[in-house]
Write a structure and sequence with these properties.
This protein is 58% helix and 16% strand. The protein is an alpha+beta fold and 414 residues long. It has 2 domains: 3-53 and 274-412, no CATH class; 82-261, no CATH class. The strands form 2 sheets. Strands 1, 2, 3, 4, 5, 6, 7, 8, 9, 12, 13 and 14 form a 12-stranded mixed sheet that branches. The chain has a two-stranded antiparallel ribbon with strand order 10-11. The longest helix has 44 residues, at 268-311. The two termini are 27 Å apart.
């Protein structure tokens, strides 16, 4: 029997009980939909994260204290390390040490809330150099100005706040010149940032910026910094600048063995590679979990095919009596199982893509994130290929059982 004839026979066999066929493939539909949806959403999330990282500029390096973390549990340790001091910043700013550096600016993360009269809000509080931050992220005050280098040297208690912070604390009233309290210390508002939302890693609307020296001495009472942001004068010199930074800090810290570094330098490329690896691994892990439901669906396919073989025993006997070979009987039932799973895979793919498109619209509108709809060709091929493999695997036993039936016994079956 030719393959087209076998396909037509298999299709007719499935059409005899459409309701049962549909219920049989539900497990496959759900499994394939889960795989395609996870890969689509995972790809969109990965693209969003990488885009945000790229927002800090390709010429930016970040120096962090402590040893480079090998896993998520070690990330917090870098925030409590005190290996980066003021003298390191001074050394890195010397042109003879790092000639390719355009700017060297420390950053301090300040936990806590801000208050104004009886209003309390918990924003993101940074001790930083405001002018460099403005240049790196292209943000400017909508009202007032940034604090100056002189304010940083004088450890002035001045602050620039984000648009949402202004709304939460002051409502429709003016914020410029008013005094807010950060961790119990009074700070005068000298600027309000323009409403920009997410820029790179920062939601600028929820920022409270103070001079890093003020954050060090008056808010946290520490003598070290949490991070140092360095901008190369040219993106092509990033690796050169990174090597100069490592050499300078090793000299400052008396380190001769690079394996004993008490700091680490992360370039944008390093960050992109790490994030890409983590998000890809997470996406594959979730897709593998979703694929488990395909096994459940495959078991359902096998059970229904066994029932179908029993119900069609006389048909099998008749076909063998008129000359059908065991191989042709096996091929017919394998094709039926394959048609079931591939049809279920196609339905699951369509459903997953519709959900992914809907999710992209909802996320963009409700959360104001640049979320894109990802048409994952890999996910679609993987879903359909896995569905076909499930059909062949779980359909083989019922098909073999049908092929081995004795034609005389089959014709006698009631």
């Amino acid at each position: 029997m030719r393959i087209p004839d076998q396909l037509r026979t298999a299709t007719e066999g499935l059409k005899t009980n459409l309701g049962r066929s549909f219920l049989t493939i539900l497990g496959i539909v759900i499994g394939v939909a889960a795989i395609v949806l996870v890969l689509s959403l995972g790809g969109a999330a990965r693209e969003l994260i990488l885009r945000e990282v790229q927002g800090i500029g390709g010429e930016t390096l970040v120096v962090r204290p402590g040893r480079q973390p090998e896993g998520p549990s070690e990330v917090a340790q870098t925030l409590f390390s005190d290996s980066l001091k003021e003298r390191d910043i001074i050394a890195l700013r010397r042109k003879e040490n790092v000639p390719g550096a355009r700017s060297v600016d420390p950053a301090i993360f300040v936990p806590g809330s801000v208050t104004y009269q009886d209003q309390v809000y918990r924003p993101t509080i940074f001790g930083w150099n405001a002018e460099t931050l403005a240049e790196a992220f292209d943000i400017t005050p909508a009202e007032g100005t940034f604090f100056t280098e002189e304010d940083t040297r004088a450890r002035a208690q001045v602050t620039v706040i984000g648009d949402r912070v202004r709304d939460e604390l002051f409502g429709s009233a003016t914020a410029l010149g008013e005094t807010i309290r950060i961790r119990g210390h009074a700070f005068r508002v000298v600027g309000v940032l323009d409403a920009r939302g997410q820029v790179g890693f920062l939601n600028t609307d929820e920022l409270v910026l103070v001079p890093y020296t003020t954050a060090q001495e008056k808010l946290l009472a520490i003598s070290y910094v949490h991070e140092i942001f360095i901008r190369a004068d040219d993106p092509s010199r990033v690796e050169e600048v990174a090597e100069d930074v490592r050499r300078t800090l090793r000299e400052m810290h008396g380190i001769t063995d690079p394996a004993k570094d008490d700091f680490f330098v992360a370039t944008q490329q390093d960050i992109l590679e790490r994030i890409g690896t983590v998000t890809l691994a997470l996406t594959v892990f979730l897709a593998a979990i979703a694929a488990i439901s395909l096994v459940v669906g495959g078991i359902g396919i096998m059970n229904i095919m066994l029932v179908s073989v029993t119900e069609r025993t006389r048909e099998i006997g008749l076909r063998k009596a008129v000359g059908a070979t065991n191989a042709e009987i096996r091929a017919q039932f394998l094709l039926e199982a394959l048609l079931l799973t591939v049809t279920g895979g196609a339905l699951g793919t369509v459903i997953a893509l519709l959900f992914a498109a809907l999710a992209a619209v909802v996320i963009r509108q409700q959360f104001s994130l640049p979320w894109s709809f990802q048409f994952s060709t890999t996910g679609i091929l993987l879903g359909l290929g896995t569905a076909a493999l499930v059909g062949l695997t779980f359909g083989l036993y019922p098909a073999t059982r049908a092929a081995r039936k004795d034609p005389i016994e089959a014709l006698r079956y009631e």
